[in-house]
Amino acid sequence: MPIKPAAGHSAHGISEPRQIGRHRASSWPSAPPNDVACGEARLAGGWHGSLLSKAAGWLDVSRYSGAALAGFLIVCAALPYANTLLNGFVYDDITQVTHDPYLHSFRHLREIFTTTVWSYVGVEGVTNYYRPMMTLGYLLCYQLFGPVAYEFHLVNVLLHAAVVCLVFAVTRRLFGDRTLAFVAAFIFALHPIHSESVAWIAAVTDLELTFFYLLAFWLYLGVRRPAAEPSKATR
């Protein structure tokens, strides 16, 4: 009669490892708890989640009116350059504003539109630098406020804010997405590449060019029509 091996021993007399805790191990779940998921659950349920939900609501551009977004963009455009209002005339500002006799009277409109910027100097001032809109703007500021640098700097800041609003309007009309338009205008308003154009009075030409260019493009987008369908004779 064959002899059965004792528990824990094989037929050859070699001990086999007992499956200690087999039932205990099987009582654990198939995967350990996910600490990240638990942390996210606690975060979503705590004050952090409430704060994040409020921030998401604030960043939802669709909840604000166009006027509110434009006002915010104007502040973002003007605030970084508020310190330039305390600056004076430098470099070309002196020759183009304080020393230019064409700004003293509207009788010089003909010279402004038919000659170059420094033509008042004489032969030495004859160049190809023709900027009648710049000189006309200087003339208006000079007649309203006199040779006060503060007012000329203020015009630059306001023009920059107007350009930012046009970036918002053009992008919105071009792509039909107000969030995209707001982000584009926000980045444009705070980008440091505009520092010289806004802070330097003589660089107002950059602001004027951008303003009228974007205004013309915005008007074009508003009146454009789809191309007419070809006639049967040309199909």
Explain what you see.
- With 235 residues, this protein is mainly alpha-helical.
- The protein folds into 2 domains: 35-63, no CATH class; 65-223, no CATH class.
- 57% of the residues lie in helices and 0% in strands.
- The chain has helices spanning 22-26, 35-45, 47-58, 66-78, 92-98, 109-114, 132-145, 149-175, 178-190, 195-199, 204-223.
- α8 packs antiparallel against α9 and α8 runs parallel beside α11.
- The termini are far apart.
- The model is unreliable at 20-28 and 226-235 (pLDDT under 50).
Give helix % range.
55-70%
> What oligomeric state best describes the polypeptide chains here?
single chain
- How many structural domains? 2
Counting DSSP H or I runs of 4 or more residues, the number of helices is 11
H/E order of the elements? HHHHHHHHHHH
Strand content: under 5%
* Largest beta-sheet characterization: none
Mean pLDDT: 78
- Please provide the count of β strands: 0
| C-alpha Rg (nearest Å) | 36 Å
SSE class = mainly alpha
What are the segments in which pLDDT stays under 50 over at least 5 consecutive residues? Answer: 20-28, 226-235
What's the end-to-end separation, in Å?
103 Å
Overall shape: elongated
